[in-house]
Amino acid sequence: MRASQYHLNTLKEAPAEAEVVSHQLMTRAGMIRKIAGGVYTYMPMGLKVLRKIEAIVREEMNRAGAIELLMPVIQPAELWQESGRWEQYGPELLRIKDRHQRDFVVQPTSEEVITDIARNEIHSWRQLPVNFYHIQTKFRDERRPRFGLMRGREFTMKDAYSFDRDETAAQASYDAMYAAYQRIFTRLGLTFRAVAADTGSIGGSRSHEFQVIADTGEDLIVYNPDSEYAANIELADAPCLLAEREPAREALEKRATPDAPKCEIVAEQLGLPLSRTVKAVVLATDPAEGPARLWLLLIRGDHETNEIKVGKLPGFGDGYRLATEAEIDSVFHCAPGYLGPVGLPPKAITVIADRTVAHMGDFVCGANEAGYHLSGVNWGRDLPEPDLVADLRNVVAGDPDPRGGTLAIQRGIEVGHVFFLGDKYSRALNATFLETDGKPAVLQMGCYGIGVSRISAAAIEQNHDDRGMIWPRAIAPFEVVLCPIGIGKSDAVREAAESLYLALQAQGVDVILDDRDTRPGIMFADWELIGAPLRVTLGDRGLKEGIVEIQARRDDQAQRIAQADALAYILERLESL
Amino acid sequence: MRASQYHLNTLKEAPAEAEVVSHQLMTRAGMIRKIAGGVYTYMPMGLKVLRKIEAIVREEMNRAGAIELLMPVIQPAELWQESGRWEQYGPELLRIKDRHQRDFVVQPTSEEVITDIARNEIHSWRQLPVNFYHIQTKFRDERRPRFGLMRGREFTMKDAYSFDRDETAAQASYDAMYAAYQRIFTRLGLTFRAVAADTGSIGGSRSHEFQVIADTGEDLIVYNPDSEYAANIELADAPCLLAEREPAREALEKRATPDAPKCEIVAEQLGLPLSRTVKAVVLATDPAEGPARLWLLLIRGDHETNEIKVGKLPGFGDGYRLATEAEIDSVFHCAPGYLGPVGLPPKAITVIADRTVAHMGDFVCGANEAGYHLSGVNWGRDLPEPDLVADLRNVVAGDPDPRGGTLAIQRGIEVGHVFFLGDKYSRALNATFLETDGKPAVLQMGCYGIGVSRISAAAIEQNHDDRGMIWPRAIAPFEVVLCPIGIGKSDAVREAAESLYLALQAQGVDVILDDRDTRPGIMFADWELIGAPLRVTLGDRGLKEGIVEIQARRDDQAQRIAQADALAYILERLESL
Predict the structure, then answer these.
(1) CA geometry: angle at B398 spanning B396 and B404, to 5°?
(2) Could you give the domains of chain B?
(3) Which ranges of chain A have pLDDT less than 70?
């Protein structure tokens, strides 16, 4: 490619709304242009990156035996009604009426359509296992789209769906996809981690996320630096930090804590560590029949409640909410901020203690009286044992790993997700096949997503500096840029650049010759922003000495290389980028 | 590809709703599966064809200097309001409200978005010319989707948009695309014709359609077998068939024609050729102010009215309609069926005669009295000369070509369309650039579409027989199929098949080995349906003689080829398929 025949249009400033570095840099480099909130045009260089990612994903999916097809973007509501997701999915599902007032959706994923295909196409165990995938435009109507391609509304996703005879076979399909994903993210040149994850609205019983490690990621990953263990903080087991119940040493005491509705203030007022305090969260669930049920959750003052874990508590399956002030008052006769588990009327509320809280002694909690807390509180002595002990909190860095060692936390960007679905969709849509005994059996499914467009943003979040992007070679918009200085004036420069350009093209290198004849400062700034892995500078002075300058975007220093060795050097250097 | 690891699922019967052969065969071969009316999943083999078409289109677009990008499927209404198409486009435009009740459309084409990009990206004449294209999912909410991929609602289209400094440069861009389209359809292996065409709702001043020739096509192409001339019948000039006005030989006579509201019946009753009759069509236009205006169109009885030509008559720019019975009665005092141009009150209606009608003498027309026609009617003598003479009719086969020779008609399927747009969109969206003199000028545009998914259906309409599809090699789902007979029982067959399979793969041939071990009859029927250009049969008996059978799908007879020569034979034979 010659820059004069391409469309390069870099910007000095990122738009004010670009909050994250990938959004800023992709916009400045002219890789994406916003058309509406969360909806972008991939400009030529942006599309090149997208296509390179797609090609790697496709190759590895095919290698793993998955078969590509293409399901439609616009899907009929009937299938979504059959699965139940028409009702379950919130406003993120973009719904349409066609000219005949029939309901359709713009697909956010394709479980329904693929299950419909499977029930029509798969008749016999002889056709199994099979894994279909497509790479297609998706839409999720995010309430607040932002962060450019990180949380867009229209995006490109690869989604695969495996069909198997039974759970064992389905597990093998899952493992094959897990292995394929490891190969894909390795080939993409990204630092990543496969982490155990919650299954969320897709459903199913087991899942792993593939997270690109980046400080700007929205997800928190709990991992053990000394083992293979890694899990999304949503799912990561938080251990009890006290091997056994702490003995009661103090007497129960009511302490004045004026204007101290938060544990942090209480700890300061009482001169105690935050880890001696216990905070109270009052939740409510609404059964199908009868009155709301109230729950008191107790978590150590320095810990955070994990909403995903709470949602999995027995009785919380249909959702939960914060209790209203009236509901709280009916049990505690006290406003929030000073609530505690001591002296509650029997059976009025179910008390659930976090694992650590259940082993605490001499702790501090609200006195159920505004402006007062209790200290020296002890289970059994001052209040009944909790009704339930459960893991209610997020892991924090430094927590012991029950399997040995210590847990650490890092941030990541979810770019892939594999789910063991079981029969959730196949049962709803009655997707069966005939087993060897001639009897129908329900297909076992897995589903496997990769956020193709998101990967391009995640790669930048992980690989950039203050001058611009630093692409891994595999998905760089160009592998090599040739920067001739004064190409319009010097025949020697033009000839050297053209000759190297053709030689690199002949070797299959994705090279661009910047023949715009702009000032070196502008040209270098453009290519540091765009982040081509290798830049070759050809100038009159160097060429007289038989030298070209080769600068890897990742390196601090350029290398002076003999012109005759440049091709070989570039080919070798690219191998490590 | 090995069939055992692929998804082959052919059907004996096509669905009842499949009216055209491409829909029937693609469904039977398992290339597409219907998800909703006009919405299909491309099954693996269907997608392979689509991707091969896309690849050829992409290569030739790139070769022509066009630059690929990717515009979104879901587009904001604001841009469509700026161009005016939000109001102009009918119910075929699928409109959506997002969760915030903002209006969006599912793109049927992308003139608005690309013009928005151009006005933001193109600042200077130095950036011109430029031609952007994308290959993307489109949606047109057809009232009655049918014919499978021929008239689907969701489909894949390549659309390109050129931007130029002035009309001369824009014409050069148009010509470059025209040439690229010639290369594309030649490489696809299709018999096609570029025809002058109407610009329709896209607008602009000049356009050509690329039509795949097929008896089942919906379009009629007027062409001259002895010249380059070809035009869609919508646009093709219909000549006057009479060099000069015929002399009046008969007297005007009122003839009883009971129950003869059609020219065909009149001609029969009067014992005259249909070509002596003239039919009357009464139309109305509604000006912005004032009463409706009435028009009487006169067309020879054996000719058909051309609605596109009528729509271009002076005064018809804002549309027209059939006159109401009341309007007709106000002028003719007679019901439709017996209307004619003789004896009309002056200025009550504007009379427009087709070119041929204007030269007719002694013609027959309605007498404006139920049950009666006039014969021996002559312009000037019996009625005033027509207010306007115009081309109102469709060409018929055998019409003389004014440029010499005779016109013929064939049917075609429109698969590509190039438009010279001028400044229609760039002016509406104020897309300007700075000229050399520093003053802003409006961009000149062209747009260029190719119906990627439709091509797969058109290829079948053109190339099939009663056993199935006959793919051109360039876009066949597989180039070669190997059919081993009894692969499960014979080591010799298995080894010969495997060896040829690997040899063909090594040569880059897209080959499938049908290792399903099915009965030969089933296997052959499948592959005649699917239409792979070459089928190689390997059986024990032949192999003992050192022979394999190679059958080109287009040929009647299979060839017996020495096993040792099979590879070379296949490679050579493929060149001509």
Answers:
(1) 115
(2) 47-72+108-236+410-461 (3.30.930.10), 253-390 (3.90.960.10), 478-575 (3.40.50.800)
(3) 200-205
